[in-house]
Write a structure and sequence with these properties.
Length: 451
């Protein structure tokens, strides 16, 4: 338990106090000198509170404030156990002390005995890191950024992406003298499906003659539906180098993208203001390094993922999930596998055998392997299996290591894997059978981190 003093130094005839830890019941405050005070003996946690001064609800604007789902504003306080701990009382006790200061000892909340309060405190620590650091702190001092001219033919653009090992690249508009969009592996998937859906055999002229910018316009018409006009008006999602990490991460998560361009505002219109691409792995790596400098943060990172509300899990594990755990078989048509990826808006899917054991992972970015020697001009997606597609991937890049963990792995171990470039998700497997128990994605991890 931790002693915490709350004060209202801004005048008034009468003052009361209420908070989330009192069940929002009013508690009297004592007048000490020129300010009203009350002291509570609290379990560690993050709490909200307000003052009732002369019949009017007030907040201390000099302290942190939050707004709830109903629009009500309250002060917020973090109570941690870095202070001397007082043994909890079994009931509420009120005594007078310090010329009228009231000490109220709250009964320990059940959450203080499990991960509920730990999670709240941990997220508060993460929030402080994200809010007090900018994306500029994460961007490498020197790095190479590949940028494509939007006027390039689609075929040439994807050949460059394949040769350079890129799954996404910013598009430069020479007329506007700035980056105006992103070309991704998903675009390549949609191009192939559009052409093969219409003419069944791939038309070389579609890729030879159409520029990337023309494809982007065609995609809006073909896939945009009734809201095409609204989509066309959406500007490029980007961030400034001075934006805090929380805003940058939310921009990536809410817009369901893998990265976002970082611009440096400048009054000089000449030159390209693009500094780099912000990605969740870079931010996760930064958070991990900062948390490990804090005893409380490092301690929480040692929790096993099986005990945490994070990820998508198989029903066999008994853990609840908001989403269905999707897997695919080697014999599944590639087109059906791509359907799952696009419909679920995920970047990869585990490939399992008949017993549910992990064999490999197929990712949207693997479609770029079809760019070698123009393989995509000689196949039909409905006739190619996932197994065949993976073999093509092996021929281009060789066999690869699947990023996996155990249900007993620590949160830190998972975050360290997710902070590696190119890793979007970690598959949870049983150690002997390699049965797929669940998946923890970058999005899952960040959604948990920021609450």
């Amino acid at each position: 338990m931790v002693l915490r003093r709350f004060a209202w130094p801004y005048g008034g005839q009468r003052a009361s106090f209420c908070g989330s830890f009192t069940g929002w019941r009013e508690c009297p405050m004592g007048l000490v000198g020129a300010e009203f005070q009350v002291v509570f003996d609290l379990p560690p946690g993050v709490y909200q509170y307000r003052f009732l001064v002369d019949g009017v609800w007030r907040c201390d604007e000099t302290k942190p404030c939050v707004r709830d789902e109903y629009g009500l504003i309250s002060n917020e306080v973090l109570v941690d156990n870095t202070h001397p701990v007082v043994q909890p009382e079994t009931s509420i006790r009120v005594v007078s002390m310090d010329e009228g200061t009231i000490l109220t000892t709250m009964p320990p909340d059940q959450l203080s005995q499990n991960s509920g309060v730990q999670i709240a405190i941990f997220r508060h620590r993460v929030s402080e890191i994200l809010l007090h650091n900018t994306i500029y702190d994460v961007v490498p001092v020197s790095s190479k950024i590949a940028v494509l001219d939007a006027r390039l033919p689609v075929k040439q653009a994807f050949k460059i992406m394949h040769d350079e090992g890129l799954s996404l690249v910013p598009l430069w508009d020479d007329q506007q003298q700035t980056v105006t969009g992103m070309l991704t592996a998903s675009d390549f998937v949609l191009i192939l499906r559009k052409l093969q859906r219409n003419i069944r055999t791939l038309g070389h002229e579609e890729l030879e003659m159409h520029s990337v910018s023309a494809w982007k316009e065609a995609k809006l018409q073909f896939y945009g539906g009734p809201d095409v006009a609204a989509i066309q008006r959406r500007p490029l999602i980007h961030v400034k180098d001075s934006d805090n990490l929380r805003d940058v991460a939310l921009a990536i998560i809410r817009n369901e993208i893998s990265s976002v361009p970082i611009f440096k505002p400048s009054t000089d219109s000449s030159g390209m203001p693009l500094l780099g691409l912000a990605t969740l792995p870079g931010i996760v790596k930064f958070i991990c390094s900062k948390l490990q400098e804090q005893p409380e943060g490092y301690s929480f990172l040692q929790n096993q993922i099986v005990s945490m509300p994070i990820g998508t899990w198989s029903p066999h594990t008994g853990k609840a999930s908001n989403r269905q755990l999707r897997t695919s078989r080697p014999s599944t048509p590639l087109n059906s596998c791509l359907d799952l990826l696009l419909e679920d808006r995920v970047s990869s899917i585990p490939i399992v055998d008949d017993n549910g054991a992990l064999l490999d992972v197929y990712s949207l970015s693997d479609i770029m392997a079809l760019g070698k020697n123009d393989v995509y001009t000689r196949i039909e997606l409905e006739q190619v299996t996932v197994e065949h597609a993976l073999e093509l991937q092996y021929q281009v890049n060789g066999r690869r290591h699947c990023h996996t963990c155990l249900s007993t792995s620590t949160f830190l171990e998972v975050l360290e894997q997710l902070s590696a470039p190119g890793v979007r998700r970690v598959v949870v497997i049983e150690p002997r059978s390699r049965f797929v128990q669940g998946i923890i994605s970058l999005r899952d991890a960040f959604t948990f981190l920021i609450g």
